[in-house]
Design goal:
The protein has 476 residues and is an alpha/beta fold. The chain has helices at residues 22-34, 50-62, 115-126, 137-142, 145-159, 169-175, 178-194, 235-241, 245-254, 263-272, 317-330, 359-368, 383-390, 403-406, 421-432, 435-452, 455-475, and strands at residues 12-13, 16-17, 70-76, 79-88, 102-108, 130-136, 200-204, 217-221, 257-260, 280-282, 304-309, 335-340, 351-355, 371-374, 394-398, 413-416. Helix 3 (115-126) packs across helix 17 (455-475), helix 5 (145-159) crosses helix 6 and helix 11 (317-330) packs across helix 15.
């Protein structure tokens, strides 16, 4: 009797992998090997004639199945001769049986800058046949005016008049309160209670609760609470989050795998949280800015320095201004443009302060500047570095957190110790002293980001690790 593939997949049910008859299993292994598949494929027995079987095998062969990719072949009712192929990077151990919709749940708390949106959109591009659902537990807990009013007394109790501070004072004071985290925990519990029909979930950050999920949860994070201790002046930030350390350790312990943006956070998880090596996977991050199509050909001749950041103090703005004054004695024509922050009293003598600038404005600035400088005192990652490098600029950053992963001294930019004003000045001088040097370092920086720091690369690394983790779970 001949058979055709009902689905080239391990068929997973709530109680584990469905068992097939030995004759099916033998047939399955032979056909999977013949199709060049690097995994065991399950075979649903459907009697068909020999020509149909050859048709399926030829289609599989012609579609050039490569490592990490599989195809689903579905027969239509009452006919074994019609079938369709659906491409996916997720291994069959993740898929439901009988062509059911594959679903992935993203759980996050707030916007997480533009990172979360970029990551989810890449998953949608890579997996067009997978349903992706997002749940923002912060929005679900405090999205309405009534919910905010209920939280106001708790925010005032924790922050006093700080709640009136523009740019997030209320939110920061509220997040410090036990009331906020009680609401977040309850909302997350309801999400996991209602959302059950998923193959797996991805939770953004290490302090979003994981409460009795019915499927594996993977974490993606740029930081941990204990990692704050290693940053210059990071003790204050650690103390702000210290009350959530038990929650964070609980969340980390429940994750199937933890995806990190940087080597630094990976090391922190291994050394400070005792996470096993196989459960920590560095996947990096991607560039959020659109491709810059028009670049000023004279950008490197002008010796223009660009700073983009809202948190002036934390991003090292005051140190950069001091270093710029030193640099001006060596390169009098150098200029400094500050976007995002609006520090008072420093404009003039080569310094331009723009304040808040939209994304399109930032892209234009990056297309015309010579070098990007942001010597942060505390920077878990800094997507803006990737955006600057992607635009063709060398970058100057602090030697801590994630920047050492992608900034190579004298190649794609320079690293300095946090607060080292003279080091900042010397690094900028080495880049700007010769337009050819600035251009070559900018070219290398762009190549580095284009090759290694894209959301496509991040998603592929995640998918590979998820495949491995869930294959192990299914087999055990």
């Amino acid at each position: 009797m001949e058979y055709v593939f009902q689905s080239v997949a391990n068929i997973v049910e709530p109680n584990g992998v469905r068992k097939l008859g030995e004759e099916h299993r033998q047939e399955m292994a032979q056909d999977a090997e013949g199709a060049g598949l690097g995994f065991h494929a399950c075979l649903e027995g459907v009697p068909v004639d020999h020509s149909t079987r050859n048709e399926v095998e030829n289609q599989l062969e012609n579609d050039h199945i490569g490592p990490g990719w599989c195809y689903f072949v579905h027969t239509l009712p009452a006919s074994g001769r019609h079938f369709s192929l659906t491409q996916t990077s997720l291994l069959p151990s993740i898929m439901n049986s009988c062509g059911m919709t594959v679903r992935i749940l993203f759980v996050h708390r707030g916007l997480f800058s533009g990172t979360m949106h970029a990551l989810i959109e890449q998953w949608r591009r890579a997996e067009p046949n997978v349903e992706i659902v997002c749940r923002d537990v912060d929005q679900l807990s405090f999205g309405s005016l009534l919910q905010k009013l209920r939280g106001l007394p708790h925010a005032v109790a924790n922050g006093g008049l700080k709640v009136l501070r523009p740019g997030g004072g209320f939110g920061e004071c509220l997040r410090k309160s036990p009331f906020y985290w009680k609401r977040i925990r309850e909302t997350t519990r309801i999400v996991y209670q209602k959302e059950t029909s998923y193959q797996f979930g991805i939770s953004i950050g290490t302090i979003v609760p994981i409460i009795n999920p019915k499927f594996p949860i993977f974490i993606y994070t740029d930081n941990t609470i204990l990692a704050n201790k290693s940053y210059h002046g990071g003790e204050e930030r650690y103390l702000f989050w210290e009350h959530l350390l038990p929650l964070e350790k609980e969340v980390i312990g429940k994750a199937a795998r933890i995806f990190t943006m940087s080597v630094h956070v990976s090391q922190t998880l291994l050394e400070e949280y005792s996470v096993t090596k196989e459960n920590v996977v560095q996947v990096g991050a991607g560039c959020n800015s659109p491709k810059i199509r028009q670049v000023d050909p004279m950008r490197y001749e002008r010796r223009s320095i660009l700073f983009v950041g809202l948190d002036w103090e934390r991003k090292g703005g005051p140190d950069l201004v001091k270093a710029f004054q030193i640099l001006k004695t060596w390169l009098p024509d150098a200029t400094l443009t500050i976007a995002g922050a609006d520090p008072p009293g420093i404009a003039g003598n080569g310094i331009e302060v723009l304040g808040r600038v939209d994304q399109s404005g930032v892209s234009k600035l990056m297309a015309s500047a010579s070098v990007f400088a942001m010597p942060s005192l505390r920077e878990p990652f800094g997507i803006v570095f990737l955006e600057a490098m992607h635009s063709g600029m060398a970058v100057l950053a602090s030697r801590q957190g994630a920047p050492p992963d992608f900034v190579e001294d004298g190649v794609t930019g320079y690293l300095v110790a946090p607060g080292d004003v003279e080091g900042i000045a010397h690094g900028l001088f080495e880049i700007l002293k010769d337009p050819k040097i600035a251009a070559e370092m900018g070219r290398r920086a762009k190549a580095r980001v284009s090759e290694e720091y894209t959301w496509e690369t991040v998603q592929k690394r995640m998918s590979s690790a998820i495949n491995q983790a869930m294959s192990i779970t299914a087999s055990s």
